[in-house]
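re the bet — no i am not wrong, look at it urself. input seq straight from the record:
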Amino acid sequence: MPTPTAAIGPLQQPTGFELAFRLRQPEPIAPKGCVILLHGVGGNETNLAELATEIDPDILVVLVRGPLELAATQFAWFHVMFGASGPKIVPEQAEHSRLDLIQFITSLQQRFNLDPDYTVVAGFSQGGILSASVALSAPDLVAGFGMLSGRILPELQPKIASPQQLSKLTAFIGHGENDSKLPVVWAHRAVEQLEQLGVWHALHLYPIDHQISAEMQSDFLQWLKTV
């Protein structure tokens, strides 16, 4: 008989938190770890609710809302335009979101007495970008990060921690071979960069476009158990 999954809670933003979020509370209440999930551009924190409910019920899952409101129920971490030369971002907004997330995770760990060694940040598309940005620049906050159809921003380079600081970090990279928004070359570039930094990583490619497939979700959930 399958283990019942806890419901996703209401949107909240307590005092001391930079960003609004929803929780999937663990069973039992004292969590053995934490997974922070970040949505893509134009989405919101509920987009990854299905993934959240599949994570081990002993884990606290936090679904975070991006700070930029594009329209009703549509949010982002930074503005981006897609052209023939690739995606063009507003780097100041990406940096602001990176710093907000670092402060958010710090507050979250203090509030719920969470161990960074059992904290993972992951996301889809722009959420995966921010997951990599946070983990690679502040590896003391998390044990690993997941990029589901994301990339590592070239603009992040000056902020990346030293290989010594990154030595305990692990990463999951899942990407569609037919991705029309962020071509699969970004996944290969991420692998090359992580290899140079000495970050252990798992690369999984799928015959899909810019999305999370059932297979990608399953592989990510299996990877989570190894972190």
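see?? The radius of gyration is 16 Å. told u. also The longest strand covers residues 170-176. so pay up
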